[in-house]
Structures are given as structure tokens and as C-alpha cells.
Amino acid sequence: MRADTIDVAVQLRRMSAQRWSFAFAAVVAATAAPIVTSSAAGSGQSPFVLALVVGLAVTSIAQPDSHVAVAIPVVVVWHWIASTGASTTGWALVVALCLFAFHTIVALMATTPARATIDHRSLSRWLRRSLAVGLATVGVWLLVLLVDQRQLAGSALVTATGFIVALSLMVALVAPRRSEPPTEWSRHDRRNGHGRIADDHQEPPRSAKVAQRSATSHSRIHRSRYA
Known about the structure:
Shape: flat
Strand content: under 5%
Number of helices: 8
């Protein structure tokens, strides 16, 4: 237990300034979920649930590539069912968006080293795709609210059609543009895990140039020897 605590502290110390902002946003989103749940139920906040969620959130941002973050929606959903269980209230949408924000931030942190800084283009693409998923979530909640208020009879065909339409719109919004080439890592230090996601038009490292010239020279020697 002590070794795990030390490892979490080391990971937190290594984080870049940008990563600290991601961590703050993730903890706020995770903490807001049980608070909103208690507000929807009209009851007092459970200190145990709040402390558990905050502890899991801090552990998740320190070790984003672990499975600790999966426990947060389990705890929040259990808290929601035990407290209110309502599915069409606006508070349910807020809790869902909080959980989505937490998980998408942790997923982004899991794809980069602790000291990495993500370039503006990649961050903008991530924000655009996350916004598309958030809007799709709002759209589905509005559809459920409409069906509930009008007391419409359930239809598997209508549900499947709506799901396909929402999924198609989301894919169209998050699909990468052809004009945006993929980003590359540059100046990655394997000794301390320090790296920065560079711009797409950044010049390749010197080692790559030397390796390319060496390969070209060997190819020329081979052709001249057997000509």
C-alpha cells in the first residue's frame, strides 16, 4: 500500500503544467457527479461517497493507464440508483456529462507521458470530437424526455433508427479531416519519459537524417559493386 502511494506521488510530481490543468478538470468533473446526485435526490451529501470518488479520481489521474477510473461510474451510478433512480430529470444529464468529461480527460492523459505537452492542433481536434459526443448525449436525453412526456408507446424500430441516426451524425462530426495530417512525437527523452507532441511540419530529428543518408550511401555502393 505504501509503495502504491509513493508511486502515485511520483507520477503527480512529474506532470507538466498542461497535464495539471487536465487533472484539475478531471477531479472537478468526477467530484461534481455525486454532488449533483445528492442535489437531485434532495438529501444531504454522503461524505463516504464523496471521499471515495475524490480518492479514485486522484488515483486515476496519477495512473491514467490503469483501470481505476472504471470504478467511478460504478460508484456514481450506484449512488444515483440508491438516491433517486429518476431517468428523465435534467440532473441525470448533468451527471452523465460529468462522467463523460472525466473519462475523456483521463483517456487523453493515458495516451501521453506525464511530462508531455499536447500541441494546439491535436487538442483542438480532441475538443471538437468530445463536444460532438456531448451534443449527441444531450440529443438522446431530449428524445427520451420527449417520449416520456408524451407517453409514447415504445418501438424497437424507432429506437434503432434514432440510434443509427445519432451515431451517423457523431461519426460525421468526429471523422478526421483529410487536410489534417497526423501529429508526430519529437525530442522524446527515453530516460525520463519527457516528450512533446510537435507540429505536423516540424523538421525530423538529426538522427533520422543521419540514418537516411547512411542507407542511401550503402545502396549506392551496392549498385556500383555489382554494376
